[in-house]
Specification:
Layout (H helix, E strand, L loop, with lengths): L5 E8 L2 E8 L9 E4 L14 H7 L3 E4 L18 H14 L5 E6 L1 H13 L4 E7 L5 H12 L6 H11 L5 H14 L8 H4 L7 H6 L27 E6 L6 H10 L4 E5 L5 H4 L1 H13 L3
Parallel strand pairs: 3-4, 3-5, 5-6, 6-7, 7-8
Antiparallel strand pairs: 1-2, 2-4
């Protein structure tokens, strides 16, 4: 973690509070970066590699935990949690923090949320956005997960599919197969930084309600989520990023590239956590994109 100035606080939202963290300060002419974490149901910690943007490039980076997640915890709220809630929350955070002009980076579910926000709100003042390792269609995500399973050692795909069908995720066979899949496509590092470990395997109530029990098949409320046919409505300059071995496969990202007007794509050597695995290279690439749109 950096030694930059840090400010944290809470913003009233829906009778609860959304926690935020500001890292560093922006140099003149540089707009702040607002970061949307994944899950749904994770928390901001695993994205703290982006502190490097504040440290090296003097651009303030602002994180927040979406309502129900991390430091923005709530009681169990199945009638409240959902894409529309977290879409509305972006504007609440922006208004509270005075982010009239801002860049956005959303990773995994956060990138899905960013695309939904850009389509539905046509937000003013968002100068650019990075959509990092995110699908526009859950159906395509599931299809690609099944294809990636074909390359697992013999019998592991059946183990994973059977667990999804039965709901039994506690067997040694399932845990072994899931670990192999995750090592190949989610996080390749044997010794990830502490800030990643703080989020890894953190299956919260929100995650289980929205996603399910694993990364492969969506069995929760997010089932069927799809903005692929509306991507043409996005007016914000967009950079797509992903890893070569990412569970957000090149086919998934290319769907976004083909349909978001004037989108760019940068493919890195890595997995779903390429922003950590290739931290310096990744931060330099996204910062270069932000600089063209300040």
């Amino acid at each position: 973690m950096s030694n930059l100035p840090i400010v944290e606080g809470k913003i009233p939202f829906k009778g609860y509070e959304t926690w935020y963290l500001k890292v560093g300060e922006s140099a003149p002419g540089k707009l702040p970066l607002l970061v949307l974490h994944g899950g749904p149901g994770a928390k901001h910690n695993y994205l703290r590699s982006l502190d490097g943007i504040a440290e090296r490039y003097h651009r303030q980076v602002i994180y927040y935990d979406q309502l129900g997640c991390g430091n923005s915890s709530t009681p169990y709220l199945p009638d409240v949690w959902g894409p529309k809630l977290w879409e509305e929350e972006i504007d609440v955070v922006r208004e509270a923090l005075g982010l009239e002009r801002v860049h956005i980076l959303g990773q995994s579910w956060g990138g899905m949320l960013a695309m939904q926000y850009a389509i539905n709100q046509q937000p003013l003042g968002v100068r650019s956005m990075v959509v990092a390792s995110s699908p526009a269609s859950i159906t395509l995500w599931e299809s690609e997960a099944l294809r990636l399973m074909d390359w697992l050692p013999t019998g592991m795909k059946k183990t994973l599919v059977d667990a999804i069908a039965s709901g039994d995720f506690d067997t040694p066979e399932y845990k072994k197969a899931a670990a192999v899949y995750n090592k190949r496509h989610v996080m390749s590092m044997d010794d990830p930084p502490q800030y990643v470990l703080e989020t890894e395997n953190d299956k919260t109530d929100v995650y289980r309600y929205m996603q399910g029990e694993d990364e492969f098949m969506v069995t929760g409320k997010l089932k069927g989520w799809d903005v692929s046919n509306d991507l043409w409505k996005i007016k914000i300059p967009t950079l797509l990023t992903s890893g070569l071995m990412d569970e957000a496969t090149p086919l998934i990202v290319k769907q976004c590239l083909d349909r978001i007007p004037y989108a760019q794509w940068q493919l890195f050597m890595g997995t779903h956590m390429v922003h950590v695995e290739q931290k310096e290279v990744y931060n330099r690439a996204v910062e270069s994109f932000f600089e063209t749109h300040d």
